[in-house]
Design brief:
six-stranded parallel beta sheet, alpha/beta, 11 helices
């Protein structure tokens, strides 16, 4: 079957799944991007593969408020299934959806969720599946799924979360072993939404009870200087136990994760949080807030813990429980390895291919 996917940029967190889908028997895939990279993208530019190309066009606006105008869309009616994975402000996406609706016998519908249906300040990703007049929403966050069930109760829905390459994370862990000192890792932007301030407050308590504990912060600096200054005003000397690793290129992330014994993502909101996938691939126990979409990968007490967003006390309790118990860390690590087998891009591609095949338009 012929399938086409329209997406915004060649994100490393999508391309692993798309590559596995392109290698799936019975699928002929074409992927089109609205632009080669976002202006503030931290990702290095990677060569496109034979099934990928960037549409010619322009983009107006700045930051998250951007509108893409592209030309050169192929005849979408020539494909058996199409995926539109762009925000609704994209003129190109609007054109694509209208052409898809016109090219099928029965009426299709593309419904969008605004940020308010998920969490305050969140940007809602829009994904629609079109074939023979049906729309399937690919929903990776629990808030989105609840919203879409309420809005479109009669439409079938499939859960296809993020699938990214994690084999290298497991290999790096095997090579490095586990640190003897409890070492917590955060990877992401150092901004309020990611709750780095909450993490530093919680780690202050952890450090008082486990003086040898370390915290590694990796990602774009953002508001980190302010957060550190506030934390050290409460806990003088805290910075001595905190390592600022800065931005780490995707190729170097497996080595970074191999330095840790527990991963922490305490975000006030995260639509998904693919770093959770990577941490699980590294065999790390994961502590995440209940406002992280990927927290659904965590089985409390088995491969990690889920804590209330913004609750520094609950976060400190979870970090202390794992940090002080090497036996618990080992059992959670083993459980994480079991979970990792279900998160490989090949597993995601098989699931996605089955969905597309089920929607194939019978001409």
């Amino acid at each position: 079957m012929r399938a086409i996917i329209l997406s915004v940029v060649p994100s490393p967190y999508q391309r692993d799944l798309l590559g596995a889908l392109a290698d799936t028997a019975g699928i002929s895939l074409e992927v089109l991007y609205l632009e080669k990279a976002a202006p503030d993208s931290p990702w290095p530019e990677m060569p496109l593969r034979s099934f990928e190309r960037v549409l010619p066009g322009r983009c107006l606006g700045r930051g998250m408020r951007r509108c893409h105008f592209n030309w050169g869309l192929p005849d979408l009616s020539a494909f058996d299934a199409a995926v539109v994975n762009v925000v609704l402000t994209a003129w190109t996406g609007q054109v694509a959806m209208r052409r898809l609706i016109q090219s099928i016998r029965s009426r299709g519908y593309f419904g969008g969720a605004d940020a308010a249906t998920e969490q305050p300040g969140a940007a809602a990703a829009q994904v629609g599946w079109y074939s023979a007049g049906k729309v399937i929403r690919d929903v990776s966050g629990k808030w989105r799924r609840a919203s879409y069930r309420e809005r479109f109760p009669k439409l079938p829905m499939h859960r296809v979360p993020y699938f990214c390459e994690i084999a290298s994370f497991g290999a790096a862990r095997e090579a490095a072993g586990y640190p003897d000192i409890p070492t917590f890792l955060f990877c992401g932007q150092m901004i309020e939404r990611k709750a780095v301030d909450v993490l530093l407050e919680a780690f202050g308590r952890v450090r008082r009870e486990i003086p040898a504990a370390r915290l590694i912060l990796a990602g774009r600096e953002g508001d980190l200087p302010k957060f550190l200054a506030e934390a050290e005003s409460r806990d003088p000397g805290l910075g001595e136990s905190v390592e600022n690793a800065g931005f780490v290129a995707p190729a170097d992330l497996p080595g970074l994760f191999a330095q840790a014994s527990c991963f922490v993502l305490p975000s006030r909101h995260d639509g998904w949080g693919v770093v959770v996938n990577q941490a699980i691939g590294s065999g790390l126990p994961v502590i995440a807030s209940d406002a992280v979409g990927a927290s659904e990968l965590i089985e409390a007490g088995v491969n990690g813990c889920v804590v209330p967003a913004g609750d520094a006390g609950a976060l400190a309790d979870a970090m202390l429980a794992i940090g002080a118990d090497a036996t618990l860390r080992a059992s959670m690590s083993q459980a994480a390895r079991v979970t990792a087998a279900e998160l490989a891009p090949q597993a995601g591609a098989a699931r996605l291919a089955a969905i597309l095949q089920s929607l194939k338009y019978d001409r």
